[in-house]
Design a protein that fits this description.
It is built from 13 helices and 15 strands. By secondary structure, it is of the alpha/beta class. The protein folds into 2 domains: about 150 residues, Alpha-Beta Complex (Aspartate Aminotransferase, domain 1), CATH 3.90.1150; about 240 residues, Type I PLP-dependent aspartate aminotransferase-like (Major domain) (Aspartate Aminotransferase, domain 2). The strands form 3 sheets. An 8-stranded mixed β-sheet has the order 2-9-8-7-6-3-4-5, sandwiched between helices. Strands 10, 11, 12, 14 and 15 form a 5-stranded antiparallel β-sheet that branches. The longest helix has 22 residues. It is globular, with a radius of gyration of 23 Å.
């Protein structure tokens, strides 16, 4: 009778296993998911070419030594307890001054968080109810679709126009606003395309937001990494009537992603935003504080020496130009020239970008991220690369990619 007991015991286990929340079912993060396969391939001894992770410190970029010294000093001075929930005063003041230098007026609040990702998630959590939606740029950073799933919000993507330099399609935004829409997300410079929104497009987005009383969620984490002296405009600076939260941090501009220090700057009309700001601060208080000693680096980063940014742009721009040249020599791959950040989003002529990226990885060791992980227009396929690797790595990786792509297309 042991088998009968075992049979029913297994059934009972099957019926009573711990079920995860439904909200997690649609959470995907292609940037990290591809690493699972890459780790397996690396174990075979194949030479790997990592063009996938947007972490400059993995490559030949280093956090400015002055910032490291300031944090070290703060730790030695025992600034190791909790900070105020919104951040330490000198950090808040520096963020405000930096925002004003970008032309942002009517600042209502500033808060420091565990990376810009937490600032964005807190702001959306304080705004959205189950069934609400926000207008999400597509392609765009997958953090937003993960938050959308966790908050059980309805998807409402708007497209960037590849034929127009990946500018947000304003008409698509306008027609997709509905009674449940609460915000417009703008990633500028954009991840994954590297595009920068024009002044005209930004003004049109503000017009839509003001008309429908929408909050503009302005993700400007790469706002200082701009190529070719291109104009980068903070959308909150264009109209003090617009209700905006502008996000940035130390991760990208200041080459310290592992420090997980970000912030949000709330601007707009106090009479419209007051309750919302308090809701944000309720969440901030409930999670206690961001990393305390690392906040002491914020004033020096924003108001001190920025020579490292000039050097970083020079390196990235040179590598972007190399990528453009290499892609131009591969038949069947097209690229809109990136204008900022450190990504490129080439278009490829394939049926399945996941299949392409998996086979590219397993056969050549070149790691790129499928465009599907960022969203894309139907019937188009892309992949995202990071342009941070050194020229020799990029050169070798694109030679391998070009040869592979030629053979891959023959098999379609």
């Amino acid at each position: 009778m042991d088998w009968v007991y075992l049979f029913f015991w297994r059934i009972s286990l099957a019926l009573n296993y711990i079920k995860p929340a439904r909200r997690t079912e649609k959470i995907k993060y292609a940037i990290r998911d591809i690493i699972v396969l890459a780790d397996e391939v690396a174990k075979t001894g194949m030479k790997m070419h990592y063009l996938n992770i947007g972490d400059p410190n993995v490559y030949d970029f280093e956090t400015p030594s002055k910032l490291v010294e300031i944090v070290h000093k703060a730790m030695l001075e025992n600034k190791n307890g909790y900070s105020p929930s919104s951040g330490i005063p000198i950090a808040i003041d520096a963020i405000k001054e930096d925002a004003k230098n970008k032309g942002i007026e009517n600042i209502l609040d500033v808060f420091v968080t565990t990376g810009a990702a937490e600032a964005i998630e807190v702001s959306l959590t304080a705004l959205l109810n189950n069934g609400d939606n926000f207008l999400m740029p597509t392609p765009g950073y997958p953090l937003y679709t993960a938050i959308q799933a966790k908050l059980e919000c309805e998807p409402n993507p708007y497209y960037l126009d590849e034929e127009n330099g990946w500018q947000p399609d304003v008409e698509d935004i306008r027609k997709k606003v509905n009674s449940k829409t609460k915000a417009i997300i703008l990633i500028n410079p954009n991840n994954p395309t590297g595009s920068i929104a024009s002044r005209k497009v930004l003004e049109e987005i503000i017009e839509i937001a003001v008309a429908h009383n929408l909050v503009i969620i302005a993700d400007e984490i790469y706002d200082k990494l701009i190529f070719d002296d291109k104009e980068m405009i903070s959308i909150a600076s264009l109209n003090k009537e617009a209700n905006c939260i502008t996000f940035s941090g130390l991760s990208k501009n200041f080459l310290a992603p592992g420090w997980r220090i970000g912030w949000g700057v709330v601007s707009g009309k106090k009479e419209f935003m007051g309750d919302y700001v308090e809701a944000i601060n309720k969440i901030l208080r409930s999670r206690v504080s961001a990393n305390h000693p690392l906040q002491y680096a914020i004033p020096e980063a924003l108001l001190g020496d920025k020579s490292h940014i000039i050097e970083t742009i020079e390196k990235l721009q040179s590598r972007r130009n190399l990528v453009i040249d290499k892609i131009a020599k591969i038949d069947g791959i097209d690229l809109v020239q990136p204008e900022g950040a450190f990504y490129a989003f080439p278009k490829i002529d394939v049926k399945d970008d996941w299949d392409f990226c998996r086979k590219l990885l397993t056969e050549t060791g070149v790691i790129v991220v499928p465009g599907d992980g960022f969203g894309q227009k139907p019937d188009t396929k892309h992949f995202r690369i990071v342009i941070c690797p050194t020229e020799d790595v990029l050169d070798e990786a694109f030679d391998l990619l070009g040869d592979f792509y030629k053979e891959y297309r023959k098999s379609l």
